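Lab meeting prep.
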Amino acid sequence: MKLYFCTVLENLLKNISNPSDVRKLHLSQLPILAKELREFIIDIIATKEGHLGASLGVIELTIALHYLFDTPSDLLVWDVGHQAYGHKILTGRKDIFYTNRQLGGIAGFPSRKESEFDAFGVGHSSTSISAVLGMAIASAIKGNLEKQHIAVIGDASIASGMAFEALNHAGVSDANILIILNDNAIGIDPSVGALKEYLTKVKTDKKLAAQNNIIKALNFDYSGPIDGHDISKLVQELTRLKAIKGPKFLHIITTKGKGLQKAEEDQVTYHAPGKFDKLSGERLPKEKSVFTKYQDVFGKTLVELATKNEKIVAITPAMLTGSSLNLMLEKFPKRTFDVGIAEQHAVTLAAGMATQGLIPFCAIYSTFLQRAYDQVIHDVALQNLPVIFCLDRAGLVGEDGATHHGVFDIAYLRCIPNLIIAAPSNEIELRNLLFTAQQGLKNPIAIRYPRGFGNSIDWEKPFEEIEIGKSICLQKGSKIAVLSIGTMSSIVEQSFEFTIKKDEISHYDMRFVKPLDEDLLHEIFTNHENIITIEDGVISGGFGSSVLEFAAKHHYKKEVKILGIPDEFIEHGSVHQLQQKLHLDVESFTNYLNSI
């Protein structure tokens, strides 16, 4: 009761605009600030939505870091940005935090263009140690030996290969860096792997922490593990470490979702819970959709296929729930592999399985596959191994913004020999492509599909094999040919309700970016005056570019209009808002058709 009255009387957060205000507080006031900061985040995310559990877990650490270190002069990097809501609020964005992840508002992750306190832009994981090491080396070259460089990395992120590479380098440097391991045993799903098991042992075995320590073996000054919610102990240990030169490593134990009981009890759901009651934590019911999420179509179909085909295995880099491979894990635990945040390993693991006759479905978000590009080329395509890449979250993904939009996959995959690239227009095509891919395919294939719900109620139909490289005509017209790829087909179909030229327009669901249906393209270019391509990927090097290359190769002179994502990074906002802004929505496309 006493703490409650102190909070009301002091209202500390109200008077904090930046970290210099935090530094004016007495140490005894910091727990009060922590309570207020948690309440502030919960209050806003309850109605505005966003990531929740990760930031609640590092409130005390966030305050302690800004209290002790001279940010932004001292450089602080969060890995990943899910943890950084408290940081944003304390660094000048409190009054606009309600705009978080909304069109025109602040980003959901740290962004260099947004604030000088965001030392490094993050969204994907495991980059912080490399970044702060680079910063520390730069400071040393410039003679600034007192500057501090801090990385806060989660236990799921530190298991990534890139983090190990950076630790290996940092350990033989004299760089003035502090790595803080935020150990809560969960990323989005529970952490996996031998390192996670080791960290679990370290929490209870003080002798192991003090002596047989893999971090010490890498030449770091290791301390911990300590309670990450004891702000006095954090300040004490950080003060000590601040005075030590060279590479340092602090291991802290936290609880993801700390301060909201529901978030502590269900850490997977409350990573990003949607709207909820800020007092009870109960999630508010959403209007139930009659449609199914694409990820669930994938997950349910894969279980159905695996039931009949014992060679099928599933691989995911730490996205079991997000890709709906949790369904496969429940039914076939020995044939489902969560490898942690390790996209490179996931791809080459799949390649190794394929050499032995297994049929690996490697489910990776489109934007995360970028991290394994070399492995896709050298380990899969070069050897022409029939790995099935299932690229979830292709196209615009909405509020997560530039780091998560899956708009580059067509362009970065299209140049790779042997690789088939398919994009189903709806759930039924996705289902049939998954079926086709496990029917003895001799090449690797990438099947891309979007985030969110489809538009087919009755999608669980008997399987039909799809001829590779074969497109279909959905509507026949006399003058204009619209070539759509993936779910942009729906935008085209909806626009026909409003266009005045419907009889003049042909619509083709191309289905495959590679190989192209060249027989159909010859027919299209011969019989139409105008050609329009529409995609939810980048225009540069994308699907439309492949059609232009075909036209140039065969000396067609017809005008080809390419609609897609322009040559710029796209901000955050709802998918519909972003489509409107990019003129890829139904109204914009209808107006374009009517203007021809």
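Slide two material, second protein:
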Amino acid sequence: MEGEAESPETPSSPWLSRTFGTSMSMHVDRGVGAMSISPSHRDVVLGSRAGLYVLDLDDPFVPPRFLPHHTAWEVADVQWSPHAAKHTWIVSTSNQKAMVWNVALPSARAIEHVLHAHSRAITDINFHAHDPERLATCAIDAFVYTWDMRRPQRPAGQFCDWRAGATQVKWSRRNPHVVASSHDRFVRVWDDRMGARPLRSIRAHDTKINGIDFSRVDESRLLTCSLDKTIKLWDYAAPGETPLHVVHTEFPVWRARHLPFGRGYVAMPQRGGGDAVYIATGPGAPDAAAAPCAHETLDPAVVLGGPGGGGHTGPVKEFLWRSRGGEAGFENREFQLVTWGRDNDLRLWAITPDMLDRLHFRRGARIPFNLTRHGAPYRTFSREPAAAAAAPAGIVQAPRASMTRGSGQQHAISQLKWLAGVRVGRAAFAAVPDARTDNLGSEVSAVGRLFPHIVFEQIKVSKGRVVLALNGPWGDDGALVFLRATVSFPPSYPAAPPVFAFEESKTLTPGRLADLRAGVDRIAADAAARGRFSLERCLRYLVGDAVDAKPDDDSSDDELIV
């Protein structure tokens, strides 16, 4: 049944991609403004003005689920709860409001709460690192609000800078009472036990701060980045405004965050930088405190993308980590970096053992922090729930008229159009898809464009099955008759031929049906012997085109053109 829990180690079908070891790209031309990942690390959510798109990274050939929410405002941030206890919660922004979604509910009524206290547009959201019921929001109105989802009608706490709007907010990963926010060039560190006065104020940069991130290991250390082309590591428990470490870059830094392992960081340019993502070791070495304000130039151990790297063709807007393993508390995890760019491409980058070695990954070491995702069921929410469940008692349901306008059907993505933008393996880095190196999904998409009168009733690329319907000249005296066929593709396709199973029909004699089977089997077997895709040639045969079962030239016009 769709939506059931599945083991990440045991795909449900030979066709289901083992995506952790594979690079991949998906094109989503929907004006996406933000991205987040589920606690099981199986789904990602993309936020747009039209609503949310939920993608299953384990089965990239299935179009994303669309949850409508039409608004005139850009989505500044979307956050999927990282906690197993709230693995169905997503929060997104809509100007001054924050929408709390429950993806276990039907898409038309998935908004459970509307958080409204800010007087200006919300700029960032962050879930509490320890308490699954709490989160924080910040806005241009300079306020930082903390929320308790057990009482969502009003904020549980508030802090204010009074002089500059807030751009980022982050809870400490080690101290449940500490939250930090950025206001222009300043970082304010707040303690919810100390009222409205900040625990610490730091003038961190010379220009606007774009990102802040707490260390997973050291309680009082946080990373900041800015338009001034620097990344800085701070110890907010130390007096003064001297950073522990300064990294100088050649580009304004849009985001910089700690690695999910060891002591290193990922840097993402706001512009320039070859539209790449840079991963480096340090700052944050154990001896950093002994040499305060050490300066260095960015020297990445790993660069993903950039000139000749086959990555994004525009600036990267967001990145996040996907991992699996580590259940016993020891460092045996596998990693993948997920990026979203202004080219509307979602890219999955395989992090190889060689890359991990360069980043000083210590396999077998004990993980020095708790993984909040442990216990989250490994399931996808990219499909609509099978049964429409009633909203739980006491839930504040958003007034639908104020939240949505018009039909969301126009924003859903057809499967054929979606398949055209999915590339796996080497094809993910190719400027133009190549039928000889691409996948079944690309072939089905291309064939759908070539034969607009053929109806693809069901496309299950992950299971290697397609059901299609067409009209072909197989009746008496060449009359058109209706054909429905189920095409099964073996896991080794195109090295092995697909199998066509035709639905019996009163308009087809048994002899003519046998001729049909023999014809497509001959064409498919010949293509498989040469390792070639065969769906297009088989369909040409079924619609009545003259197709040589064994062309002399491999570059025949009958070959698939993507």
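Talking points for slide two:
Residues 80 and 117 are 21 Å apart (CA to CA).
Residues 1-17, 285-290, 388-408, 551-562 have pLDDT under 50 and may be disordered.
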